[in-house]
Amino acid sequence: MGAVRLLAVDGPSGAGKSTLAARIVAGLRARGCRTELVSTDAFATWDDPVSWWPQLAGGVLRPLANGVEGAYRRMDWSTGAPRPGELVRVVLPEVLVLEGVSCGRTSVRPLLSHLCWLSGGSDEERLARAVTRDGEAARAELGRWQRFERGWFAVDGTPAAAGTRLSSETVSSPCVNGPLRIDQGKPLGSPRPG
To answer: How far apart (Å, rounded) are the C-alpha atoms in residues 107 and 78?
Structure first.
């Protein structure tokens, strides 16, 4: 993506993607790497889980690829119903970390330096974590979201396309605190063992 390296951390809801992405960003920044983080949670709504992508591509990915600052409007949930909120500027980084459901979708894979898939355990475990995070009132919507994302990932083939596949147990392991590199592994599209 021009001079910007693009890392996607994708996986189902409640898997721990936000936690992992925050750790990656902190590790890269600690090493002096200009790193920005954009989450799909800033765009997605219960009724629009993935078709908002042109807003991210047009507002952030294309400008950064052209060497200029990007921007997007973060979804505001303060009234209980989603509406466009504050303008978030994305300064030109060395590494852009995209985090969230569908950020490793087929259409962006040619731009990625690396795609990381985080499985996050069973549907029940992930639902429990998501309800703890979002509140009991969100349980029905989270269940509906899980059903949607199972179909999305099956059709999009995201897990199989990932250069790195992790589980929640791996992310909580001390080995993930080691040096972070996104320039290792096979390029996307190259053959991978089973």
So the answer is: 31
Distance separating alpha carbons of residues 130 and 136, to the nearest angstrom: 9
Where residue 173 falls among pLDDT bands split at 50, 70, 90? very low
pLDDT, averaged across the chain = 86
| Residue-wise pLDDT tens digits, 138-147 | 888 888 999 9
Residue 124 has which token pair? 């029940």
Quote the CA–CA distance of 166 and 62 in Å, as a whole number.
Answer: 29
Q: Which of 110, 135, 121 is nearest to 11 (CA)?
A: 121
CA 97 vs. chain centroid, Å, equals: 7
Separation between Cα atoms, residue 171 and residue 20, nearest integer Å = 7
Backbone dihedral region of 2: left (phi > 0), alpha (psi from -120 to 50 degrees) or beta? left
Q: What whole-number distance in Å separates Cα of residue 164 and Cα of residue 112? A: 13
Walk across the sheet containing 114-118 and list its strands.
Answer: 35-39, 95-99, 5-10, 114-118, 164-166
How do residues 110-124 score in pLDDT, each as one tens digit?
999 999 999 988 888
Return d(Cα 73, Cα 55) in angstroms, integer. Answer: 9
Nearest in space to 38 (alpha carbons), one of 9, 11, 81: 9
